[in-house]
């Protein structure tokens, strides 16, 4: 514990030292939070933040989840190796915000449209890649008013890249590194006046840091957009992912021949309108997947005689408009329809199949929200959603709050919001603990955020306090000698989050974030303390980044009380060069966990020690 605290003190001290030693400064750019469609997010008193394309590109990551962990206080994702999160037994990729998220309580979206598996209800961690991503929009706390059931703990909106000029644009990246890891990506975009099109692909593969944990993933994206006039635009996009991951099992419970293979796809059509006092749009989407799983077998057991198969879907339609009926007001109205479900079975080696589930559910919702600017110092927000589920009936979801600007460059937000989640089909009908008589979960979230900009806008700091009261949580317990899902759980989570960004001058900048989480009961994948600090130095054509991440109080086994504490040191360096005015090239190298720390996030799955990746990127 002392070593963890010491690393934090030293990292924080280094930030202060850099800040105090350099005097040449530049302004901190205004960061605007842009939410496609549904409402003007700037007037909503939710705890929200934006991760830019520059931050994503500088990380050199091909998965978005490590970027989220580093940049967002209170957000944590489980990992099990050098590459890949996997699905089925032994998988990682559990996403928690403020200790809420296991199952399907954090909603991932692509351009505002939900993206999750129809039967299991949760996000698919390996599908969220950096291919053609412009920025990320993260809400910490319930987003159920706008998005319904699966946004109970928060939301992450992945916004794809638009073409900013006429002609062709493209980029290509290649990386190689430890454990025979290879990462390749390419994208090409074209714009001609009102029309634009983009296509991109990514391929990752790795032997991973444990024998028998090979992994590969391929991702392809494409989108088109047409600006019919200054008031209307329309478009379509598609995102496809294929992956195969092998799992040797936990170190104390090894497995033979355990593998998972999946194909996932998401497609959408949309049309948006923007007028002086009216803006909105309509969107239609369809998400689908095919999974093949061999559950493997213990070394002293017989091989399994089946392959698990899954075919699922998630489709829907959303329409929304925001009106400005009078000065300083936004009146948002919306309608959402979604249907999800699928079919699961076992393909038997001897022929035939064993049916497991073939179900679907439908949800219909409408919402209304009013945002009003009362004066230069204050705005208020209130809204309500009525969600109807074919199995669970109606659920009212309220939200309210205000934003204050008591002094120059200071913002104070307060919000009350209800989070809501309907049980997924797995909890209702799949596997032995299934219980078709479950009720929805819900929670109440109280949030205060204070944000201050100092030093002529060079320093931006935020402090958040939150209190979460959860009810009717679904838990598995023994009833009459068998496991059974039931609405038996409750919890109280409360904590503090802090973040700061300091642009010192044109060469130096630094940022840090810290979160403290107190839970009423032990939770997996929800560290008590999480700290991340980063210093960037850009002398001319070079880029250097030093990053420290500390985690402690992380449960890897709630029953035994096993916890993990660790601190990681990561370094990145890059050199940028203009090649004959034709294209920009970057050569880079990154080293992670350079102190070779041994630690686990998923119990029985040791994380890699020191790793190194190197590569180059070309843009034209």
From TrEMBL:
Keywords: Cell outer membrane, Membrane, Receptor, Signal, TonB box, Transmembrane, Transmembrane beta strand, Transport. It is found in: Cell outer membrane. The keyword Isomerase does not apply. Residues 187-594 form the TonB-dependent receptor-like beta-barrel domain. InterPro entries: Beta-barrel_TonB, Beta-barrel_TonB_sf, Plug_dom, Plug_dom_sf, TonB-dep_rcpt-like. One of its GO terms (molecular function) is siderophore uptake transmembrane transporter activity. This is TonB-dependent receptor. It comes from Muribaculum gordoncarteri.
